[in-house]
Automatic annotation (TrEMBL):
Gene3D superfamilies: 3.40.50.2300. SUPFAM superfamilies: Periplasmic binding protein-like I. It comes from Inhella proteolytica. Belongs to the leucine-binding protein family. The keyword Signal applies. This is Branched-chain amino acid ABC transporter substrate-binding protein. Keywords: Signal. PANTHER family: AMINO ACID BINDING PROTEIN, LEU/ILE/VAL-BINDING ABC TRANSPORTER SUBUNIT. InterPro entries: Leu-bd (IPR028081), Peripla_BP_I (IPR028082). Transmembrane segments: none annotated. It comes from the Bacteria. The keyword Signal applies. It holds the Pfam family Peripla_BP_6.
Amino acid sequence: MKFRFSVLCSAGLSLAASVSAQDLVVRIGHVAPTSGGIAHLGKDNELGARLAIEELNAKGVQIGGRKARFELLAEDDAADPKQGTAAAQKLVDAKVNGVIGHMNSGTTIPASRIYSDAGIPQISPSATNPKYTRQGFKTAFRVVADDVQLGGTLGRYAVKTMQAQTIAIIDDRTAYGQGVADEFEKGAKAAGAKIVGREFTNDKATDFSAILTGLKAKNPDLIFFGGMDAVAGPMLRQMKQLGMTAKLVGGDGICSGELPKLAAGSLADGQVVCAEAGGVEGGQKAGLDAFKQKFRAKYNQDVQVYSPYVYDAVNLMAAAMVKAGSAEPAKYLPELARTDYPGVTGRIGFDAKGDIRNGALTLFTYKGGAREQISVVR
């Protein structure tokens, strides 16, 4: 009898082990630049994904009657299109169930074809170039407003609210930087501004003396920069060295908590106005504030820009899987397309192209070395 009891116990333990082994493993890919000049932004995004994954596992989420165990497969694309497509193929080969990313439009757009060909849903938390969702890929989504809204709104704001009559434009020739600068120019011209100069640099440049000296002679009221904070910081330093008093306006790429440090003491109060391609107001703001406090407590650092959008993207992807009863891309994709998710960044739903419906923009300036919100616009 003792022998039989031992056999039964062993069988019971084996059964328990096999039940545990039957957990559904759900692999979520995340891609952002975690090396290079804007690594601080990419790491911020990745931490948002890690927080969401950790919380999903703590909740014991079930998909199709099975306990799901979420795993994050994080890749670095260094904001380089070639590295971005290599990272995308690596995630496809790893048979991920979905992808959150990429961060930059220049890496998101070429990678999106690879995910589309593999039938893997992709949600970008920050790519704003319109082309991303205009390629006809059913797998491509974004949770922020695009450059048409962001650049156009900033262009109108620069003229109507900031009273700029003469404007110079600089972009970094990336898909994001040039795209948002083009839309800004359209918005500013339509509102009645005169564009006195259109220059370009690159996303790794640190010397803008020739460009800025030429623009100084044209005495613009305002300079718009289409690019990232790692370039905008040195640009602000050199503007100060040249005695330029023009305000600097930019999109979400410069609108980070790190900009005052990158400007190294050259950022005057109210000198910069920038827009983040998202935003909440009223009662919804409490949820975002709570997220920022939780993020700060866990990682001992403040949110840069888009970690809340990454956090929402992971959670709404998981919610679509739960609703579909499956983590298989083809089965949960229809649920993702018709999602209506209450996120910390606001209510999220997609239009037929995969763009967020009723996307908001938040305008910021900087005072005392910190970001200060101006308003939320739609």
